[in-house]
Amino acid sequence: MASNTISITPLTRNIGAEIGNIDLTKPLSAEVENQLKNAIAQYQVIFFHDQKISHEQHMAVGQIFGDLIIHPGAKGIEGYDKIVAIHADKDSKYIAGDNWHSDLSCNAQPPMGSMLYIHTLPEVGGDTLFSSMYAAYDALSPAMQQYLEGLQAEHDANHVYHAIYGDYGTAYPCNVHPVVRTHPVTGKKAIFVNASYTTRILGVSKNESDGILAMLYELTKDPNFQVRFSWQPHSIAIWDNRCTQHFAVWDYFPDTRSGYRVTIGGDTPY
């Protein structure tokens, strides 16, 4: 059994912390599991280094935060339908996540979070950026906050996954969620629209919808709300999709970057 006290090193004032004094290849005590849950609630995304985990260990750690779900678009790896390969190399025409997004916000119950393990990296590049949607919401004027809280938006996966995976006879998830959601654990409010999945705001004109979404997407890009994670071989990131967005930087072509991800089930936004 590993130590019962993890170390936490905050990386910015708004988002992100590095977790130390922990070995994710070994069973974790209930106390450590609670520390990890508290850490992700406080810092929104947490990072680990030097964790050479197996598929079983990957799933076990992910399950600390909730039940794992099957991705509606990407197929799981052989023998593990809840583990998705994240891989790019010289033959890649695209990569997963090279746009600001919250994973699977198109689902009726969008994921609580995701856990990504990267084992192979290019010599330079391949960072991931995370942006705090708490900070984005807090940056808005009270009048704009109040206005947005009365709105709902459509999140549609079809244009995303038909382009990537094909299967034009398949209907991918499309659901409506509040533009501002209340986090079920912290009670904080966060912007909940993203450039990958959100197609329109309901109940307003197209011009108004496009204008509001463009403003909110610009907030996501503000570096004051972000943390940038530089991966090392066998690093792990676990993030809360309910209050963050992320962007995988593809600045390493034609080199290889490879790992695995699990998706942690969530709840209906309110």
Automatic annotation (TrEMBL):
One of its GO terms (molecular function) is taurine dioxygenase activity. Keywords: Dioxygenase, Iron, Metal-binding, Oxidoreductase. Residues 8-262 form the TauD/TfdA-like domain. InterPro entries: AtsK-like, TauD-like_sf, TauD/TfdA-like. Pfam families: TauD. It comes from the Bacteria. GO terms for cellular component: cytoplasm. GO terms for biological process: sulfur compound metabolic process. PANTHER family: ALPHA-KETOGLUTARATE-DEPENDENT SULFONATE DIOXYGENASE (PTHR30468:SF1). Belongs to the TfdA dioxygenase family. This is Taurine dioxygenase. It comes from Alteromonas australica.
